[in-house]
Every structure is written in structure tokens, then in C-alpha cells.
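URGENT: need a sanity check before tomorrow's submission.

F., can you look over the FAD-binding domain-containing protein record below? I want to be sure the sequence and structure line up before it goes out.
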Amino acid sequence: MKFIWTVSVLSWASTGRAVELEVGTCCARLHQELGTKISFLGQPAYNATENSYWSLQEAGLKPGCILRPSVPQDVSRAVSIIAAIDGCNFAIKGQGHAPAAGFANIDGGVTIDMTGLNTTSLSPDRSVLSVGAGASWLQVYQYLDPFNVSVAGGRNGLVGVGGLTLGGGISHFSPRVGWACDNVVNFEVQVSFHWQFHGINADSKKVVLADGTLTNVNETWRSDLYRALKGGANNFGVVTRFDLGTLSQGNLSVSSFVNDISQRRPVLQAFTDIVSSPNFDVYASLVVGFLYNSSSKAWVISNSAVYTRPVLHPPVFAELAAVPSISNSSRIMSLVSLANEAPTPPLNWLFATATFQPSAEFMLEIFDILNSTLYSFNPQGGLVWDIAFEPLPSGMLSHATKTGGNVLGVQPEEGNSYIMLLSALWPDSASNLVVEKVSQQALFTIESRAKAKGLLRKFQYLNYAAWYQTPLASYGADNFEFLKRVSSKYDPFALFQNRVPGGFKLAKEGQL
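C-alpha cells as predicted:
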């Protein structure tokens, strides 16, 4: 069967025809090698991938073709073909949660949709879960539920295993076991080039073969790459499988509190008291959020308080629960039920983040900054702002050393802190630039005030960062230089720096 496809790239004014030919050649080669695993514009498989993105920004990009691998070897074959054709760029997609355009999709290149790699299996002693990189966390929790074990994974079950873990990963279990990435005992990863020695030639020079390959990476084998992948995102290769350490887990206690915005002082004081406690309760998982609807000009406070033991009304949340509320509910439930959230409708999204030392007074100032910046801004169709605050306890950070370390750069001796996620959802794509500008203005003001008060932490959580932020550089100079060395070693021709343009790139952040 002969396939005809159309390539459309918005930014090819000067070199469009040449790049179009290269992408066409690349897609033709991939189709020849991988058959119906490659789909083209207008075909059902292509449309299914395009319709699966969380943000309209990502869904609006149109790849020249899409690969949906069913086994890891499909990824290996595809990367080898792509690498051999100059001008053929590609993107790597899991569940498509990242909102920024190009982070998991591409215009005119090749998108590798990993969601077919979702097989899960548990070791005989139930201590290690092996899961394909394209799985969702809900798939993982549904598989593990009968065994009374779990893993440190995403709180929203529709988020993907791959993206969350490679960016660090905050879990309900993180205070107890660390970041999601700290619980990876092995990665199966497609690296760009695997250097193998093949003896010594007549001139007494070592002969090597450069060959893309699937390899296992762990604490004893390629330990430098193992550490780099724990927070280093898509800078080193395509991870096809994660082997995750499990933990014993039954039902959870889940409380939800909704407060009028007039109660922000006692709510933020309760949050600060929990966050700043030197004896942070490792079973506590808390998100406190300001929600603002630009159409109704109404603020509300929403709190999700999860306790990872089946204990109703745990003492750690007592101060928060005592604040007068619009609604207040608590129940015991399974992780599967909690994580099975309804999908959001297709909308434009943005994320931005910052990390702070605990201070209830400064959190009140954050609200004042947000209110003064956002209150009069109401684009066509309206939008919803969601500003979430999440604890980052020092005890959580100590787990990194148990499995070879990570590159996130936050240390237990820095003390407890909290992460802010500033996000927005809106329907009208014509408002994208102005919404982003307003969000940047609010974030800049908040960070400036925090820095002046000595409350701003350098760390930017990659999974919450805006495209214009520099989370990799925020890990600190030593970690950033380490990441660059690992990139040079395992990706000597910079395939994942130059040919995978989406996401946070070492090469780009190193120039800023």
C-alpha cells in the first residue's frame, strides 16, 4: 500500500523545502522498517495520538509522522534511522501531560508515542515493579492494587510514568521514600551511541563501533547515567522501561477542605506549621491551592490532605481541619480510587514554579501579589488560575543517597521548604501570549519579593517549570556540569540536545 502524507511546519520559511524532504525521507524509511507502527496525517492512529495531549498547545503541532512502538526494539530501530538522516528531528511522548508546545510533540518531525509500551510485571518477591515507560500511573496502581503494594508515583493517575519520573516526581509517598526517581532501581534506555571496543588495529589504536543500543542502567552498571536520569529529563536517551522499588501499602485517608478566601490567614498558618515542623509526618501528603475564576472574579481555597495510612482525621491535619470551611469531607479509600481523576477537557495550559522557605506572612503576600496582578485580567472566554503549594520536607530529600543519588541539588541540610505551582487553564488560543505575559509578571514579582526577604530557594521543580525557566541549571553548578559530562559521554554527537528540541535542554540552559 502506498501512503501519501503532508508535512506542515510553521517556521520553515528559509529552509522549508529541504527540511520537508528530509522529514519525508525519514518518515518513508521508518514506514519501510516499522510498517503500520508509523502513521500519517489523517490516519486513525495519528489522530488518536494528537487527540491525547492535555494541552491545546501540544495538540496543535503536526508531526510528519508518528511512531507508536509496541516493543522497546521498535524505539531502538527508529532512533538509529532518525539519527542517520540530517534534519530529521523528533519528540518523545508519554501520556502528554507537559503543557508547553514542543515538549512532547513536534511540528514536521517524528513523534514517538510511547503509550504502547505499558506492560507491567511484579518480581516474585513483590519488591520490584517493571513498567513500560508509556504507562499511566493509574495503570500501575490498578495492576498493583491486589498485591497490597505500591510505588512512589504520580498523584493524578492519568499522568505518565516516564515524564514524571525523569523530572524527579512528587508522590503521596515522597515524604516516606523520596522522589519517584529515587525509587528507580534500574532504567532500560535507548542511548544514542554505545561505544564498544573491538580490539587494537595495526597502528595500536583502539577500534570502536558507534551503535545505538538498548542498555540497562543502574547503581552498578553505568552508574553515572543512572544518576543523571534521575532529574535529567530527556537529555540522554529514550527510557523504555522503569524498574521501581515497591512499598507495602493499603488504603489511604483522604480529606478535602474548601475554604472561603477570607480564611486564607489561618489556612496558610496551618500549612506553614505542617511544612516547618522538624518532625514532619512522613505519612502526610498535602496540597493547598488558591483557585481564581476570571469570569466570576471569585477566589476560593481548596485543600487536598492525604494520609497514607487508613487513619481518619490524623492529628497532622487537625489545625487545617479546624479552619471554618465551605465543605469538609474525610474518608478511607484505595489509591486506585483516589488517582482515578476525570480527564480535563482540551484547553490551553501553562505551568510555572518556584520554591520557598516556610513563612505564613510571605504566603499572604503571595496572595496579594496574585490578586493585584490577576484580578482585572479577563481574556475572551475567561480562565482559571490554580496556585498550589506543596511541602518539600528535608526528610524526603535524604532518600536520594540510598540509590546512588540524584541530580536535583536539594539537600536535607537546607531544611524544610515548599514548592509553588502557578498554573492556568483557558479556552481561547488567541490569548496565549497575553496569559503567559501576565503569569510571568506575577511570578517575577513573587520571586523578587522572596529573594529580598531571603526566602527564595534556587530549586525549580522541572515537572512544574515554565518553558522559559531553567530547572536544570537550578540544580547547582556541580550537578549541571555533571549532566553535561554524562551527555557528552553517552550522546557524543548531541542527538538528544539538537534533534530532540523539546523539553529542557542542557545545551540551551548552558548558554543562558
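My own read: The first helix runs from residue 16 to 34. The longest strand covers residues 184-200. If you see anything odd, call me.
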